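[SOLVED] Need 3D model of a two-part complex

Original post:
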Amino acid sequence: MRRLMRWYGAGPLHLLALLGCFAVAGYAAARLVPSRPAGIAIWFLGAVIGHDLLLFPLYALADRSAAAVLRHRTARLPAISWINYLRVPAALAGLLLLLWFPLILRLRTRYQASTTLSPDPYLWHWLGVTGALFLISAVALALRIRRVDRATAEPEQPEPAQGTAPDITTDAHPGEVSGPGADDAPG
Amino acid sequence: MSDSEQPPAGGPPQPADGAPAEPPVTEPPVPEPLPTEPLSRTDSPDPAPVSRLLPRWLAPAGELPGPFRRAFWRSPIRGPWLTSVFGLILLAGVPVVFVTGLLSYAAYNPDLSPVNDTTPDKGWLGFYLFSWPTRPEWLYRVNQGVHVTLGLVLVPIVLAKLWSVLPKLFEWPPVRNPAHALERLTLFLLVGGGVFEFATGIMNIQQWYVFPGSFYTLHLYGGWIFVAALAVHTGLKFPTVVRAIRDRGLLRELRVSTARTQPEPPAAGYLASPDPATPTISRRGALAFAGGGSLLVLALSVGQSIGGPLRRVALLAPHGQDTGSGPDDFQINVTAADAHVTADQTGESWRLALALGGSAARSLTRAELLAMPQHTARLSINCVEGWSTGDQEWSGVRLRDLARLAGLASPAPVLVQSLERAGAFNRVVLSAGQVMDPDSLLAFRVNGADLSPDHGYPARVIVPAAPGVHNTKWVASMTFEG
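Solution:
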């Protein structure tokens, strides 16, 4: 028994729990799959890789591109971690699009025939909300820059070597974002 | 993956976790270059079983390519703590969505009659505990509002959780031992089942029926696959979660700004990067980011279930649009044209066929029915899709009066049939309890006007707390079980 568990790689409870899971899932799958096996399989696989191999590469690329393109800023601006002021409204707008794209993009659905409602407003609603998100973010960034400007202007001291206020992220390596480091990771 | 997961043997010395070291604010918290090679190949404590199990090509001696290398993933906030917190939020939310989903299943009274059963091959997966009640009358409205709105609100958390565990998809070697292989298979079910449930639900409420089969079938069985995998995943990961939260502290980490954010040491788990980049967002920032997404989705959709002035705020909800202020101006989900119900059928020639058991039906004209005692009830129509019409004032004949007229002595279920020929819900069997409720009506008028064709003229059923589709429109016959 001990040798068996050593080969297995975990305790008997682990095995029991997994077998229970497969029993329930298998029972459900036996009801789900037979009607349209190919369709179900494609949908299930799509669900497994949808985020990791489809969405993630898209948003990671967008994030890195934004960081790379917008790295060159005027030197008069204080060093603020500005990327989140772009990331947040863009991601929220993307989230809303992900949830509601059949309505927003006016795909051919049963919606209009069933509800007598037109899908036309949704594109404008989404654009309006997106605009509002970027506007709020821009105002927040402007306020932040002003606050930091004042904080740095007030003390008439020689500029410290690096950052001044404890809540400011210095942008020491603006090219680095928290996405995957695809290229220059050591090792 | 499994709890057998251990930090790499002989890894580099790590800074003690939770050390109060407050680094100089501006110093990027990147530790000195780490010899990452031993980390990237395997994080098994004992490489021997791997080499016994795997062919040579699965355990290459040289450098792994791209994402299969652990150091490829450089987010300084990824790690057991962040993943655990997202996991705990989902652990609070997903069971609520699952239970409200099962309650919605029960609300159709599937065991009362095959007519009501949208998943006849359910076996043990559609167990039936009770006959769906009619009180409180907001029961189904709240149940579906929670099911659909909470489901939507959890989407940003699900995405954040998937982002936080991404490196694990590329973990190398892909399997370390049989336990690890089986556990990865449950993750396949967890992610596949979970995303499948969210996707089919979100598409269904927009009536974009491109999924492979009946929504009821897919969403019920898919839900069981998801929950089976979630239960075992929760059980296996719970010790990891407890350890991660205890090590960094929940509130302690929430006080840490971006500048002071420290990566978790690679020894904390596979998700912690051995070569972390400079943080651009704190962990609390990432939580606020995902939580902000949830709040935004909530604000833009909850109005379609709550109704009133909030409906106008539901800018991105299928039934968030204002439909006008006339007596018949409230939400519709099947039009007369859609149901192929014509003016000929609903005009002067319309009769209600009222029968008891197998006995001959009696025909009633609309005028005869309107001459019976009329009752008024304020009720809403509440859809499985999570929206509600809000309360409307219906008037018509009580179902229990019709039961008596049909010759029924004691309460019994009734089969209601619509003029609609096709359509999944052109008939329904209402339970004895639903028939006997004093507010259950065969309605002819709403808000002081005759029903409009799209709301079921000449007569429709309205039952408190029933799923919307059970309020049959264009009623042609009612057959009580004798």
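Edit: Residues 1-51 of chain B have pLDDT under 50 and may be disordered.
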